Amino acid sequence: MTIAKPRINPLSRIPRQQRLVMAIRGGAGVGKSFFARSMADADVGRLCIFDTERKSRLLKGVGVTFDALEIETPDELPEFIDWALSGEGREQNYGCFALDSWAAYFGAKHSETIQAVRARSANPLAQPTAEELASDQMILQGVLRRLCMESGKSVVIVDQIAARGKETKEDNEIGRVLPMTASGLEYFVDVMVEVSLQERNGEIQRVFQVVKSNSPAFEVGFELIGDITFNDFMQRLRSEPTVPTPQVVPLAAAVIEPPASVEPLKPQISLQDLLGRAEAMGFAQKDVVVAAKMYHNQQNITKLTTEQLLDLEARMTAKYEKRQSEPPVQRIRRPITHPDNQR
Questions:
Q1: Distances (CA, A) of 251 to 197, 245, 256, 331
Q2: 17-239: CATH, from 3.90.550.10, 3.30.230.10, 3.40.50.1820, 3.40.50.300
Q3: H or E segment at 199?
Q4: What is the pTM of this model?
Q5: Who is most buried in 42, 81, 172, 304, counting CB within 10 A?
Q6: Domain-by-domain residue ranges, the chain?
Q7: What value does the mean pLDDT of the chain take?
Q8: What are phi and psi of 12, to 5 degrees?
């Protein structure tokens, strides 16, 4: 007996709502969980948090304005997600989800892999091979695939950075886990944001900086400062025009003659001077932020020294002059020939 498969109307898969899939990373205590909880106030439906760290009990409104499900063991997480997406949990009609946190789940499961490798080899210092790490990652990413892709809802994935710089190390166990957690998230989210506490204008403030993006509304280097919520990101996404606006022709850079002096003065420049000159050459503040992080390993542009500011100005000037000297790209029209004539 042949069972007929249900017919699928492809037009039913056209996206009919604006949703945002985010990853928010940062150190302990910077407010990642509070940001995930703010989804409950963003008008995207009832929030369900999968709590692998069992700290959601500290969030205001748990069980009232949103639901939080405590995950006692890592193996429970896929079952809880299945319950919410395709099981009895569908009756709760959740409109958005958050996972707090991916690092806790990934770290626990990865430690099981390490223990298995050491037990099998009888070597207490044994490490998984590259093939075992890749296989481990592919299996664990099933959690992200279910939440970020199959749910069809807005999602926030919380990830933790244990310490600045450790994510680039390869010489110890923690250093090998962190880049895997980051790369795993990059495949499934629209926007990845790093949140940190920085001194801005004499005050310690939360800085949300976009480090990876697939959306034109959030360019890499874009920052939001203060008590930012998920709704702030949604409002910016909703305000993004569907048709890109034409680019404004950059103004010519002003040439300032140095004052006559017996002894040459040491060049001076302030951050505001650099931002003003960058705007005159057609660059945005986000470009300065990205350049500062790339060339001087400084993500807080207010901390740049005079030498670093001068270096960034020289780099922007060189790039602007190169751009001006390049000839405009001309499109070549090719005759249309019949395939038989090409033989």
A1: 35, 18, 15, 25
A2: 3.40.50.300
A3: strand 191-200
A4: 0.69
A5: 81
A6: 17-239, 271-324
A7: 82
A8: -75, -10
